[in-house]
Amino acid sequence: MTQSPIPPPFPPQPPQPLDYHGDRSGFDPSARAQRRGNAIFSIARFVAAMVVMLIILGIFLAVIPRLERVYADFGTKLPLITQLVLDISRFVRTPIGWVVAAVIACIVAVVVAVLPIPRRWLRLLVIFIMALVVITLALAVLLPIVNLMDNISAGKK
C-alpha cells in the first residue's frame, strides 16, 4: 500500500457561538473574566461621564450667571454663541431645566458606559467632540471680552 502524499481534509469545525462582545471565545473562563473587567470598566466610564456632566452643569449654574452680569455692564451686543450659552444657563436654573439637565446627564453617562468603543478612530472622535464642547464654551466666554477690547481700542483712535 502506498500512502497518498496529500492528507485527507479535516471535517469543517462548527462555528463557536458568539459571546456578548462579539468574539468567538465561547464560554472559556478567561473570556468571562474579561467580560467582568469590561463591566467594571463600564462603571468607571459611567462615573467619569457623570463627573464631566456635573462639572459642565456647575459651569452653567455658577460661572455663567456671574459672567452674565459682567457682560450686561459692557453695553455691547453679545456674539450669538455667547447669547446661546447665556440662554442655556438661564434655562438650566429653572426647575424644568434641572430635570432636563439631569435626564441629559444620565443619558450621556449611560451611552458612554454602554457604548463599546473598540476602534481607535472612534475613541479619537469622542475626544474630538468633547474638545469641541470645551472650545465652544471657551469661545462663548472669551468673545465678548475680545469684542469689548476691540471697541475700546477703536474708541481711542
Nutshell version of this structure?
This protein is mainly α and 157 residues long. 74% of the residues lie in helices and 0% in strands. The chain is elongated and about 105 Å long.
Beta-strand percentage range: under 5%
Question: Number of helical segments?
Answer: 4
Distance between the termini: 108 Å
Percent of residues in helices: over 70%
By DSSP, the count of extended strands is 0
Q: Compute the CA-based radius of gyration.
A: 27 Å
Poorly predicted residue ranges: none
Main sheet characteristics: none
Averaged pLDDT, please?
A: 77
Order of helices and strands: HHHH
Tell me the structural class. Answer: mainly alpha
Give the domain tally. Answer: 1
Description:
With 157 residues, the protein is an all-alpha fold. The protein has one domain (29-152). It has 4 helices and no strands. It has helices at 29-74, 80-92, 95-114, 120-156. Helix 1 runs antiparallel to helix 3 (95-114) and helix 1 (29-74) packs parallel to helix 4 (120-156). The longest helix is centred in the N-terminal third of the chain and has 46 residues, at 29-74. 8% of the residues are buried.
